[in-house]
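Here's what a typical entry looks like (Mediator of RNA polymerase II transcription subunit 33A-like isoform X2):
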Amino acid sequence: MSSRFSLPGYYPIDSLSQRLTSYFLNSSADIYFLMKLFRLMLAKTICRIIKSVDAAMQLSQAYELHITELGHAYVLFFFSTVVGLIDSTVDDWEYQNTTKDRPSGIPGSMDLQKMDVDLKGTQNDKRVERRDWMRRTNSLMALEVLEKISESKKGATLLRVIHLNMPEKFDGLLKRLCFHETCKMTSPNLIAAKQIFIKLSTNIQRSLAFEGQLSQRTVTEMLVDIESCNFVPCWNSKSALPACWVLFDIYMESTMDPKQLPITSAVDILTETVITLQVLNQASWQETFLALWVSGLRLVQRERDPPEGPIPHLEARLCVLLSIVPLAIANILKDDVIVNSSPPQDAKPLTEMELKYGHGVNGKIRTPKRDDLILALQSLGQFSSLLCPPESVLDAANRAAAKAADVISLSKNTNDSKGSDCPSGSSVKAGGNMRHLIVEACIARNLIDASAYFWPDYVSASVISLSDATPKEMSPWSVFMEGAPLTESLISSLIATPATSLAEIKKVSRIALNGSEEEKSAAAKILCGASLSCGWNIQEHVVNFVVKLLSPPLLPGHDESQNYLMDHMPMLSAVLFGVSPIETVHILSLHGAVPEFAAALMPLCEVFGSLNPALNNQSKTGDQLSVYRVFSAAFLVLLRLWKFYRPAIERGLKEGDGAIGVGLTLEYLLLLRNRRFPSATVNPSPQDKMPMDLDQFDSPSDKPIYIDFFPKLRAWYCQNKICVASPLSGLCTGNSVHQVANRIISTVYSKMTMGGPSSDNSAASSGTSCGSSSTGGEEPSERPLLPAWELLEAIPFALESLLTACAYGKLSSRHLTTGLRDLVDFFPASLAAIISYFSAEITRGVWKLVPMNGTDWPSPAQILPKVESDMKGILAAAGVNVPSYPSDGSTSMLPLPMAALVSLTITFKLDRNIEYLLAVAGPALENCATGCSWPSMPTISSLWAQKIQRWHKYIVYSCSRSVFRQSKGAVTQLLRSCFTSFLGIRNGPDSPLTSQGSINGLLGHISPQGGLPNSAPGLLFLRSCRLIQDVEQVNDVIVGLVAEFARDSVDLSAKTTSTRLRSAHSSLSITAARAKEVSSLGASLLCAAGGPRLVYELYRRTIPTWLLSAEEVKLKEVSSASRIIEGYAMAYLMLQCGACTWGIKDRPLSWGFSSQATRVVAAHMDFLAGVLEGNVLLGCHPVTWKTYVSCLLGFIVNFNPVWVREVRKETLRKLACGLRKWHKSELALSLLERAGIQAMDLVAESLSSIG
């Protein structure tokens, strides 16, 4: 047709098209303007549509949201339609008799009267019948529509979005369904709709359970199954306990580090760890509890005969097993709902619909965890090798078995009298084991009941018969509760016997506050005795009362001329020296009492440090009391709670990691302590719910405390930080501090003129007990009897003069050592100032080296070769080979401050009375030694080993740890040895598995008798990881080892399981299970070494660097299966590290998921999105990258959807787009579904990709 169509006044269409095309091609700026104008017009149109829909449906008011996106309106419109159809069905079937019980509060519900405006008053029966028929028909059609909508994938997706992001609104839908179900048995109109309603309920149930979501499974999707994650089993049928629970063992063992006092309650941390591993391993609670108990038993057995030394021993390990673990389980069980328990009288019976959904309308129906705990305790009998009790608790185990035997005997013969108490330890000689102690701990905390005594094989028949024939003895606590006076014999028995009830502890605490002077001191010693160290069933209460006793009340009739704390001086002295042992302080820290403990010690230091001391103050109990003695005990214990001696360089390297224990300050401890009180009033933890029965006094410990409240302590605190950071400045002559320093120096020089001790320094002098009022021939009047704070302020200046005099030969080394020792004897707190000053000077490295030749300074030559040999033996047993330092026969050299410090410390006697001094000197000395050049540590260790021979094992073991501060290569070797011993691999991945693999190979089994101490590589790493200066190296090494051993697990599985494999599916499952164990070990070691700091670094730097770095050239070709497993293992490493640090699912840790964690997770997701967009060039293999991204996002969707809500909306869009390009639309949709309310529009946009 030649003529062209045109309109009057317009160009022909083809001519217009040509003109527009030419214009567009020549006007790019105008194109941009037009596109921008079009987008603006489109946005305004969409905005009007959103407002119209919102106004018609009243979505903003109903859902309390500000709807700005069309997708939001679409999702909420769909849900409102579903609810409206259900409500209209209710109205049409005329449930007038049940209208008052109908749920409300969700849009769509309408009143019946509003719809019947035409029905009232009509007289036409046919119209009434037709209207009734239409109602019934419409109701069936509405149910059919709902059934079809819920059956479709798009409808199920929209329902799931509401369920995940608006659970309270979705609960309203479930209530309506439950309402329908309760009415279907009474209303005849529902008979025809029964089948439709069943299909509707099934479809909604399937949408919540994510069934039918994946249509096809790739290899990666077999690893991360969004349905059930059952493709990677963790519970290996070949072994009783798999290695995926290794985090339990590593955490428990890390709490035993004597240099690392936990400031967060081990109960809280272990509670979250248990919940995290139960979710990650997808195990039953029976399996989880069993793994927890077995790890605790291994902890006890591993060091049941530990080497002697200033370290926590068996008491702290038993505290974890019998007190911390039961308290953690109590936290887990407190939210458990027993379905079979009697419901309230006004409660409605549970419907079939509620039981079918598994969580009920309000999420209250759960499987009883208490039954799983009982099954786990019954299963402990299989682990006979772990149940053998150590010698020190054998009597306690026998008493527990005898108690069960008594109950069984009484149940068989009700006519027999009960007996006053359980048999004593000497009455029953056999039958008790660790399971009896565990069961008693659970019964004491109401975790289980006494029916456990009747379990099969719980108590042997011989013990029952022996219990019948054995006379019962009354315990000393029963005698005490009956009102017997506190005689010396009864006091000794109460100190040695742990209390069994809270009432006994409360009575003792009242005596400690209100009794006579003798009774106060005795009661304090009783509380700090066996009840604190071995009273596992009430240990948390004893810890609370002990800390409270350090803040006593103002007694009536107090003398206003002196501080009220002087009235409690005998009791305070007994408590301070009772809690000063290393084991006891560690037990306090396990229960999370460090912040409260520090806050209670500060007022004591402030008050007693400001008082003028009395030379002799003998108490009525015969104990020697002095202001210096009480102040020193409180001050030195306070300093042990934070590393006051840490040099400035170390403080700068490790600051900012207070949650892990390094970088602690007094301000941080007080901040933690003050933060606990508001949370305790809202949701107190079990250890916080302790009865306040210290005669109801208004304790200052219940109020906020700040360091500014203690000016003297704060002044010393600031001076100490200045001393550590920079050299001392000179003092003006006549200054008060200068005068005190001169008096201290004069005291030291007076010993020279009086002909002080003549003992040679080559052997350690015996010395006197610390805290004495005078020593040698020195007159007491010559000592500077001044307030403690004035002495502490002047001591660093005196030390500088004394050390300078010694360096220039004006003062001999022997007189310097004896002078310092005399100062410590007179004023024990001076040890803190000596350590602080010397450690700072050692770090500065400005002092000359002095020969340790046995003439001027003590010589280590006698035992040094053996120490070096044993040290190398320990390292070699752990798989670490260090270069030998050839000895040229020259004398060992040490810096002058180091020589003076070690010479001073070896003069201390090994006496329990001065254990509080050794507890301060030991860690400080080791810290100083590791900061010197390499040969220094063996030299110092040799001096101590020849001083205290029975500490040889401990000293050599400590010496071997110093290697890892000096050598990065040694750290790499040790970490590799951890993996090979855990996996049971010898001499590389090609060697067969050994029987010593898994956790026993990693941490050791039972401490060896004689010979070298436990040299398991994992144990050595846990004791050394805090010494590593470049802690970021641990991240790089662990990531490399996880990748390597994950790849090798494919070949290893093929060699060891090829004869039993029947499909690629099972082969992949077994290989993935091995890779999961590798990742679990890597995550556990990483968290133990650096905690949140290393996890942040892992997300920010380590993994992105690993993905971007060019792959190393391999000697052999790596298969695609190895690449897949490598990516899977790395994704699981990220998941477990993040979950252990920040929490799992909807349980963010109170100390974990901070704003910084939010930024770290979001930044890593931004990195992944950038690579998926093609903006970043990868260095790893594409298969590894694809598997890593898919598995990581799949893990987050399954285990930690709360992380998705912290990711930017645009980043989520990019991630979903990248996953769709990989044909993983279901994973992309699942990711968007969990992104929160603000991302619901992205789900609506993704519906087009659903088939």
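Residues 1049-1250 form one domain.

More examples are in the samples folder.
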